Amino acid sequence: MLEGKVALVTGAGRGIGREIALTFAGYGADVIVNYNGSAQKAAEVVAGIESMGRKAAAVQCSVEDYEACGKMINEMLALFGHIDILVNNAGITRDNLMVKMPEEDFDAVIATNLKGTFNTIRHIYRPFIKQRSGRIINLSSVSGLLGNAGQSNYAASKAGVIGLTKSMAKELASRNITVNAVAPGYIETDMTQAMSGPAKEAVIGQIPLKRAGNAKDVAEMAAFLASDKASYITGQVISVDGGMAI
Ligand code: NDP
After folding, report:
1. Positions marked active-site
2. Distance 174 CA to ligand 1 centre (A)
3. Fewer C-beta within 10 Å: the chain N or C terminus?
4. Does position 115 have pLDDT exceeding 90, yes or no?
5. Residue whose CA is at the smallest distance from ligand 1 atom 41
């Protein structure tokens, strides 16, 4: 499904990003595994991709850093020859009620989740335009669609990702570049593992399918959106949430 394609996945050492990287490789893509702090885990993902006979490279870069994103993309273009798919997966939470939220926690979440998405798109759109093709998939969240008490920073960043996605889809459609967002619900990863006991049961109780999702559920949707099968889909926000946002 993705043979001959090169994908750059941000935050691909762990969690959903890791699963997207491995799933894409399983469908035939070569994968650039971006990480920030998880060097060892990123190296393991690279080894996993190479064991499938695909090419891979791990590259350290904080998506918050505009210049570093440009450097990463230029270096990877030189190494792989082309990039066809960008997945903006890197994301953080700093949850708190507004009454207790430090300014730096608001800024940090916006800087990684929203500005980080801008930073990579800003550097990759020119090569995409030149090659007259490209796929951009941005990770939003059910929180960005519905809001969530205690996540005003995170929900704002993920709602921002939706606005960015739709605007970029309109700007880039005439160049055969699609831009879509995936909005996961409650997915079992490091990000959600802090929640346990009654709080977790309460969240799962609100999911129509009555279970948490897994990273593979999200990765398969990202793979579909990255493939030729989705060539007539752009500017959409696809929920992968067991029905949470119905
Ligand atoms: P995890 O906390 O498990 O992993 C976060 C990933 O983001 C890590 O790979 C981390 O890299 C990377 N990352 C964080 N900051 C940066 C940065 N500045 N630069 C580069 N990479 C960075 O999260 P998930 O896998 O659960 O989430 C992945 C995406 O899906 C996020 O955008 C999240 O908001 C979204 N999402 C997740 C949901 C869930 O239920 N899990 C629900 C809805 C959306 P490293 O370890 O190298 O620092």
Report:
1. 154
2. 31
3. C
4. yes
5. 187
Give the contacts of 30 (CB within 8 A, at least 6 positions apart): 5, 6, 7, 49, 54, 55, 56, 80
Does residue 111 line the site of ligand 1, with CB under 6 A?
A: no
List C-alpha distances in Å: 173 to 6, 12, 61, 127, 133.
Answer: 20, 27, 28, 15, 10
- Of 9, 67, 191, the one to substitute when testing ligand 1's pocket (max ligand atoms within 8 A of C-beta) is 191
- Average pLDDT, whole number, for the chain? 97
pLDDT at 72 over 90: yes
Q: What's the gap in Å between 37 CA and the centre of ligand 1?
A: 11
Q: Let me know if 28 is exposed, middle or buried by CB neighbors in 10 A (0-12, 13-18, 19+).
A: middle
Nearest to 151 by CA among 105, 190, 114: 105
The structure tokens listed for 128 are 């995409």
Cβ atoms of 8 and 82 within 8 Å: the answer is no
Q: Which residue has a Cα nearest atom 46 of ligand 1? A: 38
Residue 196 has pLDDT above 90, yes or no: no
